[in-house]
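Appendix B.2, paired examples.
Example (i):
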Amino acid sequence: GDWTVPGELVVRGPQVMKGYWGRPEETAEQIRDGWLHTGDIAQMHRDGYFRIVDRKKDMIIRSGMNIYPAEIEAVLLEHPKILEALVVGIPDETRGELVRAFVVPREGVELQPDELLAFCRENLAKFKVPSAVEIREELPKTAVGKPLRRALRDEAVARAAEQ
C-alpha cells in the first residue's frame, strides 16, 4: 500500500530540544544518541509525509500483536448508534492484554454489546476485535473535554482484580 507499517516516530535535528531542564532520567529516556523518541506511533506515506496514528503508551499488545486503540475507536465511531468510543488494554495472564471498548450511544438509541462486537468482527482483523464492550452514559474527561483513557483503564484493571 501507500503507507508503511506503524512504528514510533523518532526525529533529530537542530530544532529538537536538548532535554528536560533538571530531569536527566527523563531526558535519557526520550533522547538516545541524539534522536528524540516522540512516543507517537506514525506511518510514512510513499510520498514522504507522515501521519500520527496513536501514542506508544496507549498501544495494546495482545498475543504479541500490536493493536492501536485509535484504529478500533475509528471503526466503532463509524457505527451509526455510537457517539463516543474509547479503547484500552487490560492486563491478561494468558494473552498479555485484552482489548476493552467503552462506548456512549447516541441520544435515544438502544444499543447492545453483541451488535457492536458483530460490527467489529466485520470491520477489524480478528485479533483487534474487543474482548468486551461496555456501554456507558458518559466517558470520564479532562477539563478540556478530552477522554481520560488512563482513568477507564485503571477502573477496568481494578474491577478485573476483584473478580
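Example (ii):
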Amino acid sequence: MSNRAPVAPPQGRIAQIRETFKFTRQADPTITWILLGVFLGTLAIMIGLGFLFRIPWVFGILAIPTALLATTFIFGRRAEKAAYAQVEGQLGAAASVLNTLRSGWFVTPAVGVTKSQDLVHRVVGRPGVILVSEGPSSRVTNLLANEKKRTSRFVGETPIYELQCGNEEGQIPLGKLQREVMKLPKNLKPAQVTELRRRLDALTNSPLPIPKGPLPKGARIPRG
C-alpha cells in the first residue's frame, strides 16, 4: 500500500478563478478565444505604441501587465453576465443578487408573497429600508404599496424606497439591481441601521427557498 498522502483539493484564489472560468465557459463557450484575443490584441497595441513613440522598451515592460489587466477585466464582466444569466427567471433571483451586497446591508427575502409567486424582499442599509419586488409591474405595484404601509408603522420617519426588479419598462434589470441599490443616498449611521434591523425582525416571515448564489461554491458576483 502506498504511503503517499492524499492530494488535497486546490484552495485559494487560483482554485476560485479556475472554478469561475469553468462555470463561465459552460454559459459562454467562446470565453477562451475572447480572452486570448483580448490578451494578444492588447499586447500588440502596446508594442505598436512603443515603436510609434520610439520607446519600445518602456511599452514592452508595460505590455504584459496591461494585457493581463485588460483580460482580467473582460473575464470579470463575462463571468458576471454568466452568473446573472444562471439565476434569471428563477424564483428569488433578486434576493440571490442582493445577498452579494457588501457588509452593512441586511437582506430579508420574501417578506411579501402572493399566490402568483410575486415577491417583495426587504433590504436594510444606510439609505434606510429598500423594498425590492419580483414580478410583473401590474401586480407588484400594490404588493409594494401594502408592504411599505406595513413597514412604515415600525420605522417612523426612516426613508422607504421601492424598487421593481424585472425586464418591463420602468423596472430594473437583474444585472443592474445591485448597482441601483448602492446608488441610494446614505441617510442613516451604522448604529441606526442595526437598531432599524432589530425593529423590523418582528415583521419577518418565513422566507421561501432562494437560490444560494449566482455562482458555484467558491465563486461570487463582483461586489459593487
